[in-house]
């Protein structure tokens, strides 16, 4: 049996004029140039809630984190929803923030958040029923311990700031853990055959005495609130520096650090991560539609790689497909 399991999902309405004005003011003040792609909304959060209610009905509560915005459709009277403002839990010296890493790396400060939680993003959709033991079993997180090599090549949605954050994560992990000791202690978890072909990544990294990196599935990840609290206790300067980046920057650490720590401590149950990540373009987005129509995967993630004009077409057609698969209003809607 597991203790209650919550979901945490950050969200922003990028069409909000007040939010736009504030974001542009601080970007100009900090000399930041960025693509607005990171803030493009799929306008399908109501469909995400329908998918959660249908595929993961065992979830205790959904913690929807915003800068103070409330989606028009949201039924705030539903006792399974907890609307959380940034200023409720993020220290004032980090606000306002437009950095998802700051938002995610401070969530242990939400007092009523359960110890066991799953961190989602709004471009990750479940398509099939998912059992809670896919995420937690006997209160242990379920995950896959697969090594990977961090490269300096950027593609698609992977930015330079993301690469910096990956390296920052690894500095902390290798400071506290010796790779070969970690793997010898929990060999069956690191070399679990359930990982399938991904296990070859770990085998290819066997030469390194330190962890060169980890495979990061862009899916919803199981986490422990106490792990994030521990990281702040051990590395307050590093996490403080990252949280002060109002936009994604070179000092950031990311939520994946929580995963890595749990893996290195051995406090997890091994299993292969399910799902498919798409980087849809105007030429390939029908692959996403096919995956939704035929429920080809338990969960999908889609990070667009297109012009704003193409995005509107892709968004329209993907949302229409999701609407057909999840046509009934959820209890999270008015």
UniProtKB/TrEMBL annotation:
<dbReference type="InterPro" id="IPR021520">
    <property type="entry name" value="Stealth_CR2"/>
</dbReference>
<feature type="domain" description="Stealth protein CR2 conserved region 2">
    <location>
        <begin position="38"/>
        <end position="139"/>
    </location>
</feature>
<dbReference type="InterPro" id="IPR047141">
    <property type="entry name" value="Stealth"/>
</dbReference>
<dbReference type="GO" id="GO:0016772">
    <property type="term" value="F:transferase activity, transferring phosphorus-containing groups"/>
</dbReference>
<dbReference type="Pfam" id="PF11380">
    <property type="entry name" value="Stealth_CR2"/>
</dbReference>
<keyword id="KW-0270">Exopolysaccharide synthesis</keyword>
<protein>
    <recommendedName>
        <fullName>Stealth protein CR2 conserved region 2 domain-containing protein</fullName>
    </recommendedName>
</protein>
<keyword id="KW-0808">Transferase</keyword>
<comment type="similarity">
    <text>Belongs to the stealth family.</text>
</comment>
<dbReference type="GO" id="GO:0000271">
    <property type="term" value="P:polysaccharide biosynthetic process"/>
</dbReference>
